[in-house]
Amino acid sequence: MSLLEIKDLHVNAGEKEILKGIDLKINKGEIHVIMGPNGSGKTTTANAILNNPLYTKLNGNILFEGEDITNLKTDEIARKGIFMSFQLPEEIPGITVTNFLKFAKNKVTGKPVKIFEFRDEIKKHMEELQIKPEYSERSLNVGFSGGEKKKNEILQMLVLNPKLAILDETDSGLDVDSIKTVSKGIEMFKNKDNAVLIITHNTKILHNLKVDYVHVLVNGKIVKTGTQELAQEIENNGYKNYK
Amino acid sequence: MSKTNIEEINRNIYDIKNKDEYDFKIKKGLTKEIINEISNQKNDPDWMREFRLNALEVYNKLELPTWGPDLSELNMDEIATYVRPKSKMTGNWDDVPEDIKNTFDKLGIPDAEKTSLAGVGAQYDSEVVYHSMKNELLQQGVIYLDMETAVREYPDIVKAHFMKCVPVHDHKFVALHGAVWSGGSFVYVPKGVKVDIPLQSYFRLNSPESGQFEHTLIIVDEGASLHFIEGCSAPKYNKVNLHAGCVELYVKDNAYLRYSTIENWSKNMLNLNTKKAIVGKNAKMEWVSGSFGSKISMLYPMSILNGEGAKTEFTGISFAGKGQNLDNGFKVVHNSPNTSSLVNAKSISKNGGKCTYRSQVKIMENAKNSKSSVSCESLMLDDISISDTIPTNEIRTDEVEFSHEAKIGKLSDKTIFYLMSRGLSEEDAKAMIVRGFAHPIAKELPVEYAVEMNNLINLELEGAIG
Q: What is the pLDDT of residues B101-145, one digit of tens each?
């Protein structure tokens, strides 16, 4: 049984059909990459998996560990073990990073959080991601630079420890060092029991990772699936061969 | 997404109704005879009886304010202005009748007294039933009494200050207050005495179709400091209740006063409260205010910065739900050079509730080098709620720094989706956004009130968001 299986997914954003029949299988232990030009439906795919109410599913199913999650609410999907790193993380004034993580951890696990161990865990991950310690007491994402927001998404991923992490353009707008830090975060997260879906139009983030599958998404359809070499080919030639 | 709506939230402890038992309840209405009877019942000295009767005349001459919420549903013929509980004032909780004590127990007052307060006053309907202060403060010359005792025991100081800061002509409900006032607290902090632990008075209105008109008079003498906390609540009835309290604060030269309030009236209450402070040279007056309950609230605490270098800060939050019209704000008069005022006001409205921030900043000609900075932010939780900002600024000198910033926002679907993707339910997500919005105010409140405010926010949001 696949961890995630998407079958013939058609999705509208407003009146416009964005995804025109997507099929995708992700197994535990795998890293998948979806690449594609702007407007091809990458972000829509991520939002559709999390059932963002701003997108409408016309057809198709999403199974997670064999269970149909197509129409579950976003928070229920999150509690099943799916996490999404946002391209533009939201700012939450008045809620500190630590308090937010504590609350979210409690919600996804359904268990009370042991506060001292938890603080140590956050501290450890923040060091690994080179996030300054004072950020733990700042309001979530408020006044963070683009790079700091992205690192904070990876911090959330490490703390919440989902079964499937979807990283939507986590590398965009990052400098070389930050991209390395994010890759390191993904490496730390990854194990044989979970999986990662990286959505990107840039191959830099892939250089330090062992990717299992690369899917090329063009105009709402996956037009080719390959291995890491496919990413290299796209880096060299762009998407012109797939239009 | 599923939508649930409940119109009446269960306010838990705040809605506990005791039987309407009393020692004496004056007949409804407002006449000279009724005022005389209140005066008899309270054993007023002659000057106070005359004061009341004069205030009644002023009341009869003044018109209802027309610039704010509609007050036409208020019929003074239906309100009993004086209800004496079946209890004598005491300094020992054990002597307070069981049901009244239970109410204050559930509100956490005796507990707070043990752990975090230097003195407590507790009023039930029209009279104070409990008043006590720690011995150390007594020895330092601090006076903390119920207002009636103060009138008897400190006539000179009371006469010199009573309704001098807020004169009865100010507006109709101040005149009403002057005629029927009962209960409240009197505080005097002598020169140079720093009261490190707060004093708290709690006002509970239990009796239906009645009014509460407590009078709070605080004098913080030169170089002294005090933190005073005021709490108010009432259970819900079907008919209108009225609260028209009056708070007069004298902050003398180099003194410091922080006045924190949570008004958590039930939603049948008209809260027409008047609060004013006169601030001396290099003195500082801080207001912290949370306004949650009441059907209509008109509440505009005011600082008059009379002394050179006087400062004031106002930190306030209002939360209006269905059927509530909270018209709150802050007023300041800069009446001396080098004075400063800083305002941080927030409001939250939902389910058709209305919040208005109405403010007045007056900077007089002589107030050179003064500064005033006003920021007000409102958050509407749905499309049917209303938020408004009505500032009046009158600046009569050029040599000032003045800024006014207003922001009105709505809950964003994107933010809710972001939080839900972290496992928070829609309700949790909204509550978190609201808590975060309110946090800068909550952190200024005394701890137990900050907790109360968060609980109130959760109560208000529980299952109540569409």
A: 988 888 888 988 888 888 999 999 999 999 999 999 999 999 999
- Domain A4-90+162-242 part of CATH 3.40.50.720: no
Question: How many CB atoms are located within 10 Å of the residue A81 CB?
Answer: 18
Per-residue model confidence (pLDDT) at position B201:
93
Distance CA B160, CA B77 (A): 33
Six-digit token pair at B374? 């006003």
Nearest CA in chain B to A142: B436
Residue by residue, DSSP assigns B417-448 as HHHHTTT--HHHHHHHHHHHHHHHHHTTS-HH
Of B304, B196, B199, B292, nearest to B249 (Cα)?
B304
DSSP string across chain A: --SEEEEEEEEEETTEEEEEEEEEEE-TT-EEEEE--TTSSHHHHHHHHTT-TTEEEEEEEEEETTEE-TTS-HHHHHHHTEEEE-SSPPPEEEEEHHHHHHHHHHHHH-S---HHHHHHHHHHHHHHTT--GGGGGSEETTT--HHHHHHHHHHHHHHH--SEEEEESTTTT--HHHHHHHHHHHHHH--TT-EEEEEES-SGGGTTS--SEEEEEETTEEEEEE-HHHHHHHHHHTTGGG-
What are the extents of the domains in chain A?
Answer: 4-90+162-242
For B232, the token pair is 């108010």
End-to-end alpha-carbon separation of chain B, Å? 9
Which residue in A55, A92, A161 has the most chain B C-beta atoms within 10 A of its own C-beta, making it the best mutation to test that interface? A92
- Contact residues on chain A for B440, CB-CB shorter than 8 A: 94
Using CA atoms, how far apart are residues B460 and A230, in angstroms rounded to an integer?
54
Task: Give the mean model confidence (pLDDT) for residues B20-35.
Answer: 91
Distances in whole angstroms, Cα of residue B144 to Cα of each of A156, B67, B203, B219: 52, 37, 16, 10
Mean pLDDT of B3-15: 53
Check A94 against B426: CB less than 8 A apart: no
- Best residue in B317, B378, B421 for a mutation probing chain A (most A CBs within 10 Å): B421
Q: Number of A:B CB contacts under 8 A?
A: 77
pLDDT band at B14 (very low <50, low <70, confident <90, very high): confident
Helix or strand holding residue B414 (H, E): helix B413-420
Contact A53 B437 (CB under 8 A): no
Produce one character per residue of A112-124: b if its CB has 16 or more CB atoms within 10 Å, e if not. Answer: ebeeeebeebbee
Token pair of A78 as six digits: 């999150």
B258: its two tokens = 């922080």
Q: Could you say which of A92, A93, A104 has the minimum Cβ distance to residue B423?
A: A104
Query: Is pTM beyond 0.80 here?
Result: yes
The answer to whether the beta carbons of residues A216 and A243 sit under 8 Å apart is: no
pLDDT for res B462: 61
Bridge partners, residue A63, by sequence:
A5, A68
**In angstroms, rounded to a whole number, what is the distance separating the alpha carbons of residues B62 and A201?**
72
**Does the distance separating the beta carbons of B425 and A139 come in below 8 Å?**
no
Residue with structure tokens 């005090």? B226
- Where residue B466 falls among pLDDT bands split at 50, 70, 90? very low
Q: How large is the ipTM? A: 0.97
At A190, the pLDDT band (50, 70, 90 cuts) reads: very high
Measured over all CA atoms, what is the biggest interatomic distance in chain A, rounded to whole angstroms? 54
Q: What is the pLDDT of residues A128-174, one digit of tens each?
A: 999 999 999 999 999 999 999 999 999 999 999 999 999 999 888 88
Please give the radius of gyration of chain B, using alpha carbons only, rounded to the nearest integer.
Answer: 22
List pLDDT tens digits, range B333-392: 999 999 999 999 999 999 999 999 999 999 999 999 999 999 999 999 999 999 999 999
Spatial neighbors of B298 by CB under 8 A, at least 6 apart, are B65, B68, B69, B271, B272, B273, B327, B328
